[in-house]
Amino acid sequence: MAVFRVYDIVWETDGNATRLPSEVQVACDDLGGIADALSDAFGWLVTDFKATVVSETNQERA
Predict the structure, then answer these.
(1) Which end of the chain has fewer CB atoms < 10 Å from its terminal CB, N or C?
(2) Torsions phi, psi for 25 (to 5 deg)
(3) Does the pLDDT value for residue 60 go beyond 60?
């Protein structure tokens, strides 16, 4: 699991006026999970974003 700083977020709002963040931190397994994490958290899809790793947790799996 990692925490990502996600910024320059472009939201797919279908032209609706919304107040969505342009930068957030999200926790997910990898870069591929960021779009789903954002959608789950805010209820809107994203079309583009940039991300950097803030921290990683190495967990051993049984």
Answers:
(1) C
(2) -115, 135
(3) no
- Over residues 14-42, mean pLDDT: 94
Which residues, 6 or more positions from 50, have their beta carbon under 8 angstroms from its beta carbon? 6, 7, 8
48, 8 Cβ separation under 8 angstroms: yes
Mean pLDDT, residues 43-51 = 96
- CB distance 7 to 51 below 8 Å: yes
Query: H helices of 1-62, where?
Result: 34-42
Question: Once rounded to an integer, what is the mean pLDDT over residues 14-33?
Answer: 93
3-state class of 61 per DSSP? Answer: coil
In degrees and rounded to multiples of 5, residue 22 shows phi and psi of -100, -10
Burial (CB count within 10 angstroms: exposed 0-12, middle 13-18, buried 19+), residue 42: middle
